What does this fold into?
Amino acid sequence: IHWLYLEEALVPDHWYDIKGCWSGSATFLADGNPAILYTGWSNSSQQMQNMAVPADLNDPLLRKWVKVPQNPLIVATANLNSSEF
It folds into this structure.
């Protein structure tokens, strides 16, 4: 196995993930392009589900990702313990 050390794919830099970008999953959208779905910890300490897409589909390593403007996609309801979301 040969590891390639790359820069971080996602960093906490928006209100909906400013306290952390946590592991999630990757999938393919209906158009065949990849997407990352991840949990963000908001500025109000609430967990939210977010999505990012590749900035450059021609990059074989998909090193840069862009958070979609629709974020957050899912927000925990007020009666749900956000730490269990």
About this structure: The beta strands are 21-28, 34-41, 47-54, 65-67, 74-75. The chain has a mean pLDDT of 91. Residues 19 and 45 are 7 Å apart (CA to CA).
